[in-house]
């Protein structure tokens, strides 16, 4: 069938119109707010897909916001999905557009409802209802703050603490006459303003973000990396992350981190990140794993309201509070000053956790405390709850288990006597000990004689002087003509074996007093080849295909050169090392090293490595190396290696 020209033109216009309609975002409204005082906020939050207009294309900023619309806004900010604890309201029909959103805020306990079993979704939201919902959604702490509006007595009891908390935090203001008008309705523009004041920014698209945030930041999707930035407020890792992954790399968070999404795929805190309080409060039963890198500094309290795994090899925590989590795992060589258990839980200490004091409070009746893997330890245990059960697998001293006079069901100890993981005593537990590690020096066999490199405050300063043809380590000088046959280490406390690592992915056991040759070094590197290439693969995305291929080739050649040298020589010539260093410096100067380093700087910092002065005649680096015992119960020492080429 042939179409006439007029019909063809008509169909073409329809097609163009259809394309235009489908490509314009749903959040583009008619210009009914162009001159409105909230224009910028409306545009920002519509672009973030938090706001939606009406079918006629308007936004109606001065229209009253309904309770259903308020629920939808909160759902979109946090990406709420869970409905497992939702109430069934008699006035919320499943076919209504707001039904799913109301189920989500109900399950999260964010919005108030009514004693008659209704939600009143189409009723206009009041100012106190909106304030209550915002405070609950953002977990604004309600302490002892009080507000002093002229109409304070009109504020409902159930909203009073939340309103006071928002006012104290600078997120809510009253009216010029000093009133709050709690039962007054809220316009759509005013509702947007409340969200805007408490949310500096929202990340809802996967990617890498590096811009500092003045205020609170919400992340509500998986596949996000926050890198090299400071957040002055709270960081909300929201429910919209689902079972996905978010990474913090060299991020400073001055407020709290509230973890509401994630899974065993982990929330990763890496590099030289600095964090304060962390609250894990995820809906549902699936646990969240929060993994801390070796250089992370955590100052505040970790509060676990939902099932969680907290993992870190050299992490130092002041306080961990278990307050709702049914299952908790603390994993790795971390040190914790205090654990407080407020509700019944099963707490597992895994692979060398050291705890100074654990307090089991009254409502934690029937709590179970166990250990797994390399033995962990708890020095003091205070029992204020009935029915505490201590399983095997961690060390403690029964004499240091103090039971309150109010406890009627005393703790249950392992039938075999206890503490486990290193031997229990007949009194119920193995005594907790913290064994020190002191690397005194390295002994170098050079030209048939021995030189000692002494440890200086756990720092080793290496200077490669190309002009003088020397290498100096903590004041001990080696000339280019020197040949090194072996190196051994001395430990002051009689420890036979230590574990040396820059990351948990790359660790090596070293025998104290054993003379290691260049062949031994080559064997160690060969054994770790897969780990080295796996670590390199973690920066493939930052490097790009071309640079990554070059990096793989460089690592492959370096391993090959080391093996060739070790097979041909029993000793290491200092001249050889100087030559290799010069080759590396020359390559850095020729290959846009500074630009390349900028791509992987964050990843290298994760492994404790920083480079300086690239593309100059005098590049340098600083690296962190960690040393601990092969068995649990030993302290973790941090060593700094400073390498300077001149």
TrEMBL record:
Residues 25-88, 89-145, 146-209 form the SLH domain. Residues 1-30 form the signal peptide. InterPro entries: Cell_Envelope_Struct_Comp, SLH_dom. Residues 416-429 have a biased composition (Gly residues). Residues 410-429 are annotated as: Disordered. It comes from the Bacteria. Keywords: Repeat, Signal. Pfam families: SLH. This is S-layer homology domain-containing protein.
């Amino acid at each position: 069938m042939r179409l006439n020209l007029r019909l063809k033109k008509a169909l073409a216009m329809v097609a163009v119109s259809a394309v235009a309609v489908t490509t314009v975002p749903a959040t583009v409204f008619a210009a009914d707010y162009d001159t409105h005082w909230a224009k910028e906020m409306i545009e920002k939050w519509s672009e973030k897909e938090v706001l939606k207009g009406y079918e006629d294309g308007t936004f109606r900023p001065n229209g009253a916001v309904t309770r259903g619309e308020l629920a939808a806004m909160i759902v979109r900010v946090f990406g709420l999905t869970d409905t497992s604890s939702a109430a069934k309201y008699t006035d919320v029909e499943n076919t209504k557009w707001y039904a799913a959103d109301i189920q989500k805020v109900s399950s999260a306990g964010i919005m108030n409802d009514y004693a008659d079993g209704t939600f009143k979704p189409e009723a206009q939201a009041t100012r106190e209802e909106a304030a209550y919902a915002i405070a609950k959604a953002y977990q604004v702490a309600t302490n002892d703050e009080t507000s002093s509006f002229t109409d304070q007595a009109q504020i409902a009891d159930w909203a009073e603490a939340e309103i006071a908390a928002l006012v104290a935090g600078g997120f809510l203001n009253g009216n010029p006459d000093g009133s709050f008008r709690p039962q007054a309705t809220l316009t759509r523009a005013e509702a947007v303003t409340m969200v805007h004041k408490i949310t500096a920014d929202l990340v809802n698209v996967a990617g890498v973000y590096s811009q500092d945030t003045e205020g609170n930041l919400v992340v509500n999707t998986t596949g996000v990396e926050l890198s090299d930035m400071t957040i002055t407020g709270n960081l909300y890792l929201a429910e919209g992350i689902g079972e996905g992954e978010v990474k913090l790399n060299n991020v400073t968070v001055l407020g709290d981190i509230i973890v509401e999404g994630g899974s065993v795929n982990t929330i990763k805190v890496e590099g030289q990140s600095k964090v304060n309080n962390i609250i894990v409060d995820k809906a549902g039963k699936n646990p969240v794993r929060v993994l801390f890198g070796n250089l992370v500094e955590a100052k505040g309290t970790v509060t676990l309201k939902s099932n969680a795994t907290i993992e870190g090899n050299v992490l130092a925590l002041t306080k961990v509070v278990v307050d709702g989590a049914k299952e908790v795992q603390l994993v790795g060589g971390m040190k914790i000053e205090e654990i407080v258990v407020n509700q019944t839980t099963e707490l597992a200490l895994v692979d060398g956790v050291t705890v100074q004091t654990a307090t089991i409070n009254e409502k934690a009746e029937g709590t179970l405390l166990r250990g797994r893997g390399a033995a962990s330890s708890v020095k003091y245990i205070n029992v204020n709850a009935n029915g505490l059960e201590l399983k095997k697998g961690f060390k403690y001293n029964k004499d240091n288990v103090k039971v309150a006079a109010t406890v009627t069901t005393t703790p249950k100890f392992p039938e075999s006597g206890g503490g486990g993981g290193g031997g229990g005593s007949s009194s119920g537990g193995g005594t907790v000990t913290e064994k020190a590690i002191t690397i005194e020096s390295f002994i170098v066999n050079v030209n048939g004689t021995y030189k000692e490199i002494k440890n200086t405050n756990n720092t080793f300063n290496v200077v490669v002087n190309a002009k003088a043809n020397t290498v100096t380590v903590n004041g001990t000088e080696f000339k280019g003509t020197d040949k090194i046959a072996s190196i051994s280490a001395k430990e002051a406390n009689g420890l036979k074996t230590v574990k040396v690592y820059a990351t948990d992915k790359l660790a090596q056991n070293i025998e104290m007093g054993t003379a290691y040759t260049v062949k031994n070094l080559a064997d160690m590197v060969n054994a770790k080849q897969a780990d080295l290439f796996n670590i390199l693969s973690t920066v493939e995305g930052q490097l790009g295909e071309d640079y990554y291929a070059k990096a793989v080739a460089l690592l492959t050649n370096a391993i090959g050169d080391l093996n060739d040298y070790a097979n041909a020589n029993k000793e290491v010539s200092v001249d050889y090392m100087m030559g290799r260093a010069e080759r590396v410096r020359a390559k850095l100067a020729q290959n846009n090293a500074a630009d390349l380093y900028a791509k992987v700087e964050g990843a290298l910092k994760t492994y404790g490595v920083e480079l300086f002065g690239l593309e100059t005649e005098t590049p340098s680096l600083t690296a962190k190396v960690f040393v601990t015992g092969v068995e649990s119960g030993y302290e973790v020492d941090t060593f700094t290696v400073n390498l300077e080429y001149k």
